[in-house]
Specification:
The complex is a heterodimer. Chain A has one domain (75-304): MetI-like (MetI-like fold). Chain A contains 11 helices and no strands. Chain A has helices at residues 27-72, 75-79, 93-124, 129-142, 146-161, 166-190, 194-202, 207-235, 239-242, 262-270, 275-304. By secondary structure, chain B is mainly α. Chain B folds into 2 domains: 1-45, no CATH class; 81-343, MetI-like (MetI-like fold), CATH 1.10.3720.10. Chain B is built from 14 helices and 2 strands, in the order H-H-H-H-H-E-E-H-H-H-H-H-H-H-H-H. In chain B, strands 1-2 form a two-stranded antiparallel ribbon. In chain B, helix 7 packs across helix 9 (201-225). The chains are: A mainly alpha, B mainly alpha. At the A-B interface, helix 1, helix 3, helix 4, helix 5 and helix 6 of A face helix 2, helix 3, helix 4, helix 6 and helix 7 of B.
């Protein structure tokens, strides 16, 4: 039946009812091998294709953004406040400043709380059910949509005060920063060798001092980059600011007044019908994304040096 | 300073040798001239009060994470009371959304959210699997870092920038080219009918898919990396091809975690706001056609919250927020549970 040249009749067997083991491939096995070869290569090609497909939109977005942003970016963008409708020119200087103020507020509130919670999880909570629960809640909180944060803070602060404010925007972003920072701080502290802590405690240093001067200090590059990641993440958030910071067409330095923010301004301008505003939206996006990319790339450089594994 | 006081039971890190040293030094010179060591120990104090305050403070911050979740829940329930009383559970089953007459039902938004999220998952999951497989099993070591870097950059782009790109690139593309193509070849299914504005369910799903891809692929990659190499080697030793090795040795072992990653992506898709608001068309309709403008739970809040006049309108929107909050909490808890089951939650480096 087989045309295989290697086919030799089975040696005389003591049990003629049983076929002797063969060392060649039957037709069915050949087909099977070909199928397996084909499927294997098909999947390989598909995997490569899908990777290319995933990278394509990023490249498309980045190139388009770079093209549109760079062609509309000028000095006025950084020095002027938005021009009234119908007038050309104008910039987003107030939005950049506003973003800075809101983010500073958020960092002042969010970073200490986040780091402290991370310290508790890593240094004092190891193995405790409470710590596991906190860790789990932090992960879950990380997935809560930012718009929900926005309306929660709106209900809490803006409804009480009866006006939008930079402070409310800061609180909303701070709440979003906490879980991320907590988890990275914990992970970074876990990389600090126990022997260093033991050395400090062995010298008679109190625990709080050990944590501050030894554990945190050793892990500080990782924790700083973790904070930068959280910062970069909330820097682009629009939804929580819609009903808290609200936006402002003019300079504002007061924390109890509505304030402009870069992502908000981009959103408002993108949805407007004016070409001039679209142009500014692209420029704003470029500025925003360059800021975020710089932060993320710095994190990445740290990560590649092994200081910050798994945080990015 | 007694031995018992000095030996704080929670100090698990202290080595016994040191404690013995302190203990031994104490009775030796109770009244005599203080040694430098003793002076140092006295000067620093026991530190137990400061320690207790410090730990308390850290604990407070850790508990504040619970506090945040409870607080959001409380305040949302409080502020949506009006609508909760007025409509009860039927709020989620009625399709009326009429701010003028004060008649509110969330069904169109639930529909929009489900359709866009599931469509986005359908598009993103196979691609994300491909990327994860490529990165962990096929990719030459040199390419691995740049490609994972690029996928992480995708995750770092703000939602509003995706939205901007979608408004000016994806929407015209959909309106002028892709829409006609889909109508021509898939029009018979009935899903691609009606006037194609460029904005609508399908455009929103595509931008959502692009946005959740990096999350799903990077978590899947991490989970696949957690599969021990011995599994792969065993499969290869049995004569499996690479794909059979991946399917049986890697994917089967990682399936729980992969499901977790997908659900995590779903959670992200459910709550994604800005990009969706910008391209979905913002219209409370339930329509079979994917070209039709619609609205999601998140986008209706973003679009209508600031112009909500009247307490009932506002309260209805906050109730939508409450629903979104609860749904994403549940979805994320399930996903985290599954991912943790594989990666153990805590970093593996803890010795």
């Amino acid at each position: 039946m087989s045309t295989n040249p290697f086919h030799t009749p089975p040696a005389t067997s003591s049990d003629p009812g049983r076929r002797a083991p063969t060392n060649f491939q039957t037709r069915r096995m050949q087909i099977n091998t070909a199928r397996r070869w084909f499927v294997n290569h098909l999947v390989t090609v598909l995997a490569i294709l899908s990777t290319a497909l995933v990278i394509a939109p990023l490249v498309a977005i980045l190139v388009y953004l770079l093209y549109m942003g760079a062609s509309s970016l000028n000095i006025a963008f950084f020095t002027h406040i938005p021009a009234p409708v119908g007038e050309n020119g104008g910039g987003m200087a107030n939005a950049i400043l506003g973003s800075g103020i809101v983010l500073l507020l958020a960092s002042l509130m969010g970073i200490p709380v986040g780091i402290s919670a991370g310290v508790y999880l890593a240094e004092f909570g190891r193995g405790k059910t409470l710590a596991t629960a906190v860790r789990f809640t932090a992960d879950v909180l990380n997935g809560v949509p930012s718009i929900v944060m926005g309306i929660a803070i709106y209900s809490l602060i803006v409804m009480q005060q009866k006006h939008f404010s930079a402070f409310a925007g800061g609180v909303a972003l701070a709440v979003m920063m906490v879980p991320t920072i907590t988890r990275t701080t914990e992970e970074m502290l876990a990389t600090v060798p126990h022997s260093i802590r033991e050395a400090a405690l062995g010298l008679g240093v109190p625990k709080w001092r050990t944590v501050l001067s030894v554990s945190l200090k050793t892990a500080s590059p990782g924790i700083i980059t973790g904070c930068m990641l959280a910062f970069a993440r909330v820097a682009g958030e629009t939804a929580p600011l819609l009903f808290t910071a609200f936006g402002n067409q003019f300079w504002s330095f007061r924390l109890d007044q509505p304030i402009a923010a870069l992502p908000l301004q981009i959103y408002v301008y993108a949805m407007s019908p004016y070409d001039e505003w679209h142009r500014l939206a692209w420029a704003g996006s470029l500025v925003l994304i360059v800021m975020i990319m710089v932060a993320v790339t710095l994190v990445r450089i740290y990560a590649s040096r092994g200081i910050l594994k798994g945080a990015s | 300073m007694s031995l018992e006081k000095d030996r704080d039971p929670s100090t698990e890190l202290r080595t016994p040798a040191v404690t013995n040293f302190v203990a031994a030094a104490e009775p030796a010179a109770p009244e005599g001239p203080a040694s430098p060591v003793r002076k140092f120990l006295q000067a620093r104090g026991s530190g137990s009060v400061a320690d207790r305050i410090f730990i308390g403070l850290m604990l407070l911050c850790a508990l504040s994470i619970f506090g945040i979740v409870l607080f959001i829940l409380m305040i949302l329930v409080m502020r949506s009371r009006l609508s909760l009383h007025q409509f009860g559970f039927s709020f989620f089953t009625r399709s009326a959304w009429d701010p003028v007459n004060g008649d509110f039902g969330a069904l169109p938004f639930i529909f929009g959210t489900l359709v866009t999220s599931l469509l986005a998952l359908a598009m993103a999951v196979p691609l994300a699997m491909g990327v994860a497989i490529f990165l962990t099993e096929l990719c030459p070591a040199k390419l691995r870092a740049p490609i994972s870097f690029v996928t992480e950059l995708l995750a770092a782009i703000p939602s509003v920038v995706y939205g901007l790109w979608a408004v000016f690139v994806l929407v015209p593309l959909m309106r002028d080219h892709l829409g006609d193509f889909l109508y021509k070849y898939l029009g018979w299914t009935g899903f691609f009918e009606g006037f194609n504005f460029g904005v609508g369910l399908l455009t929103a799903s595509i931008i959502l898919a692009i946005m959740i891809l990096p999350i799903i692929s990077s978590i899947t990659r991490d989970i696949m990396l957690a599969v021990p190499n011995s599994q792969r080697e065993a499969m290869l030793a049995l004569g499996a091809t690479r794909w059979e090795m991946i399917r049986t040795g890697v994917l089967r072992n990682a399936r729980i975690g992969i499901v977790g990653a997908v659900i995590l992506g779903l959670g992200r898709a459910l709550g994604e706001t800005m990009a969706v608001t910008m391209v979905i068309g913002n219209h409370p309709d339930i329509s079979k056609s994917l070209f039709a403008p619609a609205n999601t739970l998140a986008s209706v809040i973003a679009g209508e919250f600031s112009e909500a006049t009247g307490d009932l309108y506002l309260s209805a929107l906050i109730e939508i927020g409450l629903a979104l909050f609860l749904v994403t909490i549940v979805v994320n808890a399930i996903a985290r549970g599954l991912v943790w089951a594989v990666t153990r939650g805590t970093p593996s480096r803890i010795g």
